[in-house]
Amino acid sequence: MIALASGLRVYLACGVTDMCKGMTGLAMLVQQYLAEDPFGGAVFAFRGRRAGLIKLLWHDGVGLCMLIKRLEQGQFVWPSATTTGRIALTSVQLAALLDGCEWRAPARPRRPELAG
């Protein structure tokens, strides 16, 4: 489990990305297609055609970092393309995504209806 800061900016690159790309290629995608700064401290998530692998890219203030995660079973839930090519997530949603869980509509705790 990786601890994520609560104010962390996270962006999902919608649609399919070529998973042969490394850090430099993904950073160029962030600049050109997502119109974001890959060195600004935000985390960018990419998924390929096979839905069991994702790559995360971020700059930690010293250098570019990349995390690759492959699910042993199942697929990562991913949105199709949007007009901006990206959607924003919270750090909690990213943690759910990395666990292979549904991140779009997490189950809310049920509120008790009666006190007794």
Automatic annotation (TrEMBL):
<dbReference type="InterPro" id="IPR008878">
    <property type="entry name" value="Transposase_IS66_Orf2"/>
</dbReference>
<dbReference type="Pfam" id="PF05717">
    <property type="entry name" value="TnpB_IS66"/>
</dbReference>
<protein>
    <submittedName>
        <fullName>IS66 family insertion sequence element accessory protein TnpB</fullName>
    </submittedName>
</protein>
